[in-house]
Design brief:
Layout: H1 7-36, H2 41-60, E1 67-69, E2 72-77, E3 83-88, E4 91-92, H3 96-119, H4 123-147, H5 157-230, H6 234-262, H7 265-269, H8 272-287, E5 290-296, H9 303-324, E6 328-335, E7 339-346, H10 363-372, E8 376-381, E9 387-394
Parallel strand pairs: 5-6
Antiparallel strand pairs: 1-4, 2-3, 6-7, 7-9, 8-9
Helix pairs in contact: 1-2, 1-3, 2-3, 3-4, 4-5, 5-6, 6-8, 8-9, 9-10
Length: 398
């Protein structure tokens, strides 16, 4: 357009340069729609239809909407000496209003889409698109002011387009790197999840082997010997039958506890008191120690709180079985409108709390679980006097 030497060449160049602006506006509408995830399909189709209509008018109009008549071309020199063709004695085309309507409609649409994106929390992305679009539309207005003889200068539409591409490219590159990092985190999370699943399977397999399978083996052995002992020593057979019933109930309770762990809905469906009684019954059947369970003030609790109380009890009982050599365990759960309190005590060997081997007894795990719900964890133990664990959770954090 700058290099035109006659009016015909200028008008031809003007039509296609201005027409390309309307085609670009169609693509800009779809880009903004996809980028902001704002998809009013009917509105987009209406806008695109208008821009295509403007494109056709631009080709029909003598000088591409801007002018209805051009009498001659003149040249003016830029500061660095470049000559630019400029139309003189022109008549402004009334159809120029369509061009301004197109600029206003695309500005309103993109700003509203950016506003919606900003409200969704994607603030940087919305600001980037709004700024780059503002620059692009600003140079469009600048070029129209040149047409209206407000001042003489170079048309800046191409520079506005380059600015738009540069700003959005930098933003999209940043989002690409963020997506790559997020994908790496997801892959790492999936790897850790698989490891956790495998470890949980191994733990359940060990629990099944250490508890249910050994209990069932004992049940099978007793069941085979009872018929042979019955005729000679009925009193011994009676004791074995009672032991058989106890082992069977313990195995059943152990299986229920394992099913609760495998099926999270089991924690939601049952109260904490029921879960604790089921857990202690399973441990008692497996370890053959006396466990006295007392539950008062049982009431609905948040699932994460219920899980922490359940896991701490489970960990404490496992430690007692493995290390305490105790014959009696007391598990007391008390709840009211202000707090929930769990107390687990045994009459085992005990230990010096100042001399706990690093990574031993799972005490750190119990403390971390308590901290996760802002509960208070206390451990009391003395050599030869047993151990006591107290877990207290204040309702409403008071």
């Amino acid at each position: 357009m700058y290099q035109s030497t006659n009016i015909e060449n200028y008008i031809y160049a003007r039509k296609w340069v201005s027409g390309s602006g309307f085609i670009f506006t169609v693509f800009l509408t779809w880009f903004a729609t996809i980028y902001t995830n704002f998809k009013p399909l009917r509105l987009i189709l209406v806008l695109n239809s208008l821009y295509l209509f403007y494109f056709l008018i631009n080709l029909i109009s003598p000088a591409g909407i801007s002018y209805s008549h051009i009498s001659q071309l003149s040249n003016f020199s830029l500061p660095w000496g470049e000559l630019i063709a400029y139309p003189e004695r022109t008549t402004i085309n009334p159809l120029i209003r369509f061009q301004f309507l197109g600029l206003i409609s695309i500005a309103i649409f993109i700003l509203y889409a950016c506003y919606r994106q900003y409200l969704r929390g994607e603030k940087q992305a919305a600001i980037s698109l709004a700024v780059s679009t503002g620059i692009l539309l600003g140079v469009g207005v600048h070029d129209r002011l040149i047409d209206f003889r407000v001042f003489k200068s170079v048309y800046l539409a191409q520079f506005g387009f380059m600015s738009f591409v540069l700003i959005m490219s930098l933003r999209l590159i940043k989002e690409l790197f963020q997506s790559v990092k997020l994908r790496q985190k997801l892959l790492e999370s999936e790897r850790l999840r698989k490891i956790a699943v495998e470890e949980e399977r191994n733990r359940l397999a060990r629990d099944l082997h250490d508890s249910v399978s050994q209990t069932l083996f004992s049940v099978a052995t007793i069941a085979e010997t009872v018929p042979r002992v019955w005729q000679r020593h009925p009193e011994i057979a009676q004791e074995k039958l009672e032991e058989l019933a106890q082992l069977t109930q313990g195995a059943l309770a152990e299986m229920r506890s394992l099913l609760v762990e495998l099926r999270p809905s089991g924690l939601r469906d049952k109260s904490l008191g029921e879960l604790l009684k089921q857990l202690t019954k399973a441990v008692q059947g497996r370890a053959k120690i006396q466990i006295i369970t007392t539950v008062t003030g049982d009431q609905p609790l948040p699932e994460e709180v219920k899980l922490v109380f359940y896991r701490v009890t489970q960990e404490a009982l496992n430690n007692i079985i493995k290390h305490a050599q105790s014959t009696q365990v007391d598990v007391t759960f008390q709840g009211n409108s202000e707090y929930m309190k769990l107390c687990i005590s045994d009459n085992g060997y005990g230990f010096d709390v100042k001399d706990i081997p690093l990574g031993h007894l799972g005490i750190e795990i119990m403390k971390e679980r308590a901290e996760s719900i802002s509960a208070n964890f206390q451990l009391e133990s003395y050599l030869g006097k047993g151990t006591k664990i107290i877990l207290t959770w204040l309702i409403n954090g008071r």
